[in-house]
Automatic annotation (TrEMBL):
UniProt protein name: Zn(II)2Cys6 transcription factor
Stretches with biased composition (Low complexity): 42-63
Biased composition (Polar residues): 1-12
Region (Disordered): 1-72
Organism from which the protein derives: Talaromyces amestolkiae
GO molecular function: DNA-binding transcription activator activity, RNA polymerase II-specific
Alphabetical list of Pfam families matching this protein: Fungal_trans_2
Positions in coiled-coil regions: none
Length: 368
């Protein structure tokens, strides 16, 4: 498997926050610097066999007293983990687990994995810090922490990409889900100069490039506890009918293919992404897990589509705007809040007036 998946830091302002971190380092008594937050090595706690010669509990030595104190870094991580179990895990369950299934997987199983694997632990800590930042609590400080733990997790993650096994798959899949939500959230906390289309391109191509971890290991996923997140069968077919408004929108997009495509290959790409859009709209028109909106569309589309979108191809953007309606419907989630409407408005601002009829449905659906 290629190790060049786009699990790079999704925030172009990472270096800026590292500079902020270095500023924090210079403050007296600060323990929030990247160097101080790096994971410590194996525990050197006294083993049970050594306790027979240890001082009694009533005559603790000075060195033992010093060892008994938690560092500021350890307290910070405990605080982030507490926030994760108390608040962040619920936001993940609400977004990714159907209401008729076990909602505790992000509270219990994910934490179990984190206690066994530093990859998942850094992932959960990064989302906890990012959740606090998105909630407006010490935003700059928690953004630094989110980036820090995300980057540590990525460093551990990359070697796994060429060695996915039954033993490590559950942690790899869990971290992949974390990266997807982090990609949406970190853009809200950064001061990136990228425009909306560039940001969305980064996020959706990152999700698209996670296909080897999901589709290529589908049997491992089916046998893991994460299978609760899988879309239940029977799967819908493309011939299922949508509302009149959706059918009219899709017909307008298909009509544009013949007059927009320059080559047969380009026409095939247009048809493929319109079919992907139709499939996602069918999925979201029935009781399905909400997260399918985030992953199915990016994973179905050919790689050529993303270049078209980034280059502001009108038909590619029109498809994106209509897909954004499904993101807009997830707006109650703190991770998705505002993204759908922002995507539609960005496309509307780029497209020439003669294309506006292709996104009129999306504009109506996202109008405040």
């Amino acid at each position: 498997m290629s190790s060049n998946l786009m699990f790079i830091s999704s925030d172009p302002t990472t270096e800026r926050y590292k500079k902020i971190a270095s500023t924090v380092e210079s403050r007296p008594g600060s323990d929030l610097t990247p160097s101080s937050m790096i994971s410590r090595g194996p525990s050197t706690d006294t083993s049970p066999a050594d306790t027979s010669t240890s001082p009694s509990f009533t005559s603790t030595s000075e060195s033992n007293v010093a060892d008994s104190h938690f560092s500021d870094t350890e307290r910070e991580r405990l605080r982030l983990m507490h926030h994760y179990t108390l608040h962040t895990a619920k936001t993940l369950a609400d977004l990714s687990i159907p209401t008729d299934r076990d909602q505790t997987i992000w509270h219990n199983f994910a934490v179990e994995l984190a206690l066994e694997n530093d990859l998942m632990l850094h992932g959960l800590l990064s989302l906890s810090a990012l959740h606090l930042a998105l909630s407006g609590i010490s935003k700059a400080r928690h953004t630094i922490l989110a980036i820090h733990h995300h980057d540590l997790g990525l460093a551990l993650f990359r070697p796994y990409l060429t060695n996915i096994t039954a033993q490590n798959y559950e942690s790899i899949f869990g971290f992949t889900c974390i990266v997807m939500l982090y990609a949406f959230g970190i853009q809200r906390c950064s001061e990136s100069t990228a425009n909306t289309i560039e940001k969305v391109h980064q996020i959706l191509t990152l999700i698209s490039n996670s296909r080897p971890i999901t589709k290529s290991h589908i049997q491992a996923l089916r046998h893991s506890r994460w299978s609760i997140m899988m879309m239940p069968e029977p799967y819908p077919t493309l011939d299922e009918k949508l509302s009149d408004e959706m059918e009219a929108m899709l017909a307008k997009l298909m009509q544009r293919v013949s007059i927009t495509a320059i080559t047969p290959s380009q026409a095939e790409t247009y048809v493929a992404v319109i079919q992907s859009l139709r499939y996602v709209l069918i999925l979201t028109s029935t009781p399905r897990p909400a997260h399918v909106t985030l992953v199915i569309f990016p994973m179905l589309n050919p790689s050529e589509y993303w270049d078209m979108m980034l280059n502001h191809d009108p038909l590619a953007l029109a498809v994106l705007a209509n897909y954004a309606v499904t993101i807009h419907r997830l707006g109650r989630s703190i991770w998705m809040e505002g993204w759908g409407k922002e995507m539609v408005d960005a496309v509307h601002a780029i497209l020439a007036p003669e294309w506006h009829d292709c996104i009129s449905w999306a504009l109506d659906e996202t109008r405040e």
